[in-house]
Specification:
The chain has one domain: Rossmann fold, CATH 3.40.50.1820. It has 16 helices and 13 strands. The protein has helices at 5-33, 77-92, 101-104, 159-164, 191-206, 218-229, 258-263, 265-278, 280-293, 295-304, 311-318, 320-323, 326-337, 365-374, 390-393, 395-410, and strands spanning 35-39, 47-49, 52-54, 65-69, 120-125, 131-137, 144-148, 169-173, 211-216, 238-244, 352-357, 379-383, 421-422. Helix 1 packs across helix 2 (77-92), helix 1 (5-33) packs across helix 9 and helix 10 (295-304) packs across helix 11. It is elongated and about 105 Å long.
Length: 424
């Protein structure tokens, strides 16, 4: 999750609640207006007045009416009420996976991502009260690689990497408050605090062996912040960087429509973040509805994928919507809004591989191109067609590029002219 996506969270959540309530109301209004008052057909009954009996024809007329259901199926307001109510209700109702239209529109893949937590587990308690869950895969004496996932996700994001890079010591961890890690007691989700958490993971899981840092989205921001806070670690403790679909400054500045979104940071984005923290239980309900009715899948597809993702990949990312604690997500976004690593780029003295997607609107390719130009000797790989979750959509090409880079770092060299693009 990136800063401006908080607006999407509120829009789709409020629409889900609104349509869930308004749909049945409009159907009821149609049903009520579809009844008409119809006079009963007179019958030849008699009425009594005292002891005298009069024929019905001589008595004062008594008109009686019945409400009769008689809908008008023409092109009119009545039919429009019904159509609008049914469409709103069908859009908003929790359909579940079996009836999720957006999900069904995607083909199933041969190997769909899912939770894979079979590695050696270590837990790291931090001074701020957070507890980090770390998992390790692969031979203990193999070159270590520390992988930091994107915001709002967890270490399961590296499913395909775990499956393909068996010859390295993979160290994956859940960021505080996400996955199976506990959030800090002081709610400090600044990039500096997260970078210190990363340093603790490196120290605990890799010891004195130099690691390659791989970071996706906020994971890349944490890696760059680590370089800023621990410049002495570059070389002895960190032998290489892989920056995946990330940026060097406030993400609002490097998104699509950056000017507008930056202008809306103070009047719109930050108030919604505060509201998300205060009304976290309500946002949880909205997120659950969004996932169940498919609107989360729709927004996930627009921001994360190019249209070639599999059914399981789309559902895998969308499923984080109801699982991510809203207050944690909001506080982490506040941290991103105060992030800037522009000045550290030119000081990076270790091999760096930058991976981007040609259609990424969350961290535009221009941000990756700027980092390549600023970081001495940095190399750039562009996945295409790909957006923010290109590492899943093109997992084979992604793993191949990372594998070659890590292997070269382990041998003490810089990759020899890595590909500038990966074929679709």
């Amino acid at each position: 999750m990136m800063p401006f996506q908080i607006v999407t969270v509120w829009i789709r959540g409020l629409l889900s609640i609104l349509f869930l309530a308004l749909g049945p109301y409009l159907i009821y209004q149609w049903y009520r207006h579809a009844h008409v008052m119809q006079e009963r057909t007179p019958v030849g009954e008699t009425r009594s007045a005292g002891s005298t009996t009069f024929p019905a024809a001589q008595a004062a007329p008594v008109r009686q009416y019945d409400r009769v259901f008689a809908p008008d199926w023409g092109l009119n307001r009545q039919t429009a009420l019904l159509a609008a109510g049914v469409l709103m209700f069908l859009w908003a109702i929790p359909k579940g996976k079996a009836l999720n239209i957006r999900r069904l529109m995607r083909r199933p893949g041969p190997d769909e991502p899912h939770s894979l937590r079979t590695g050696e587990v270590r837990r790291i308690t931090r001074p701020d009260g957070s507890e980090l869950r770390v998992e390790m895969y692969g031979p203990a004496d193999a070159p270590p690689v520390v992988l930091t996932h994107g915001w709002g996700l967890d270490s399961d994001e590296w499913y395909y990497v775990k499956q393909s890079m068996h010859d390295f010591r993979l160290i994956v961890w859940d960021l505080p408050g996400l996955g199976l890690s506990k959030e800090p007691d002081n709610h400090d989700f600044s990039l500096e605090n997260l970078a210190r958490d990363l340093d603790a993971v490196i120290t605990s899981a890799a010891g004195d062996r130099p690691v390659v840092l791989v970071g996706h989205s906020i994971g890349g921001m944490i890696s760059l912040t680590h370089c800023k806070l621990f410049p002495e670690a570059m070389g002895p403790r960190v032998s290489g960087l892989v920056l995946v679909n990330t940026t060097y400054t406030n993400p609002l500045h490097t998104m699509s429509m950056a000017g507008l979104k930056t202008a809306l940071q103070k009047p719109l984005v930050e108030p919604l973040l505060h509201l998300t923290i205060w009304l976290a239980p309500l946002v949880r309900v909205m997120n659950w509805l969004s996932y169940q009715n498919g609107s989360a899948h729709s927004s996930t597809e627009r921001s994360g994928f190019s249209g070639r993702e599999t059914r399981g990949q789309l559902d895998f990312v969308a499923a984080y919507t109801p699982r991510t604690p809203p207050a944690v997500a909001a506080r982490g976004i506040f941290g991103m809004l105060r992030y800037d690593a522009t000045q550290v780029l030119r000081t990076i003295s270790i091999p760096t591989l930058i991976i981007t997607g040609d259609k990424d609107t969350t961290c535009k390719p221009e941000a990756s191109e700027y980092m390549r130009a600023e970081i001495p000797g940095a190399q750039l790989v562009t996945l295409f067609p790909a957006k923010h979750e290109g590492l899943l959509e093109h997992h084979a090409d992604f793993s191949k590029a990372v594998h070659a880079f890590v292997l070269s770092c382990a041998k003490g060299g810089i990759p020899n002219q890595p590909p500038s693009g990966t074929p679709a």
